[in-house]
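[09:14] KT: can someone run the structure on this one? pasting the chain below
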Amino acid sequence: MNGISIVPEFPDEEIYVKCDEDQMARAFRNIIINGLKYSKKKITVACETNQKYVYIRFKDDGNGINRDDIEHIFDRFYKGSDGGTGIGLSLANEIIHLHKGSVTAYNYLDGAVFEVKLPIID
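[09:31] RB: done, structure tokens below
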């Protein structure tokens, strides 16, 4: 979309989570689509793990999230300063929570980061 690259940064070892693959793909797709709206050139998707959780970070190189909007972007039908309704991020949040995970958003250097935390299985 608009020449924006999606750059994966994944570890070599496989990581397993218990989830509905279709629903989790939908949640990730909603986060990526949101990033495509605000990115300039790329979205980086990075994955890290510890003994209990996997952390998936979606980082764009846009201008970041408006300070007034950041605490509401997962609220259903919240109309942000850019005029978007936020239904996609709200749905992603609900799906991730149903999988005993969490999603947070914050600004970092030159863009926004959406961090998904999910429990791993052995």
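[09:33] KT: thanks! Strands lie at 5-9, 42-49, 53-60, 102-108, 111-119.
[09:34] RB: yep, looked fine to me
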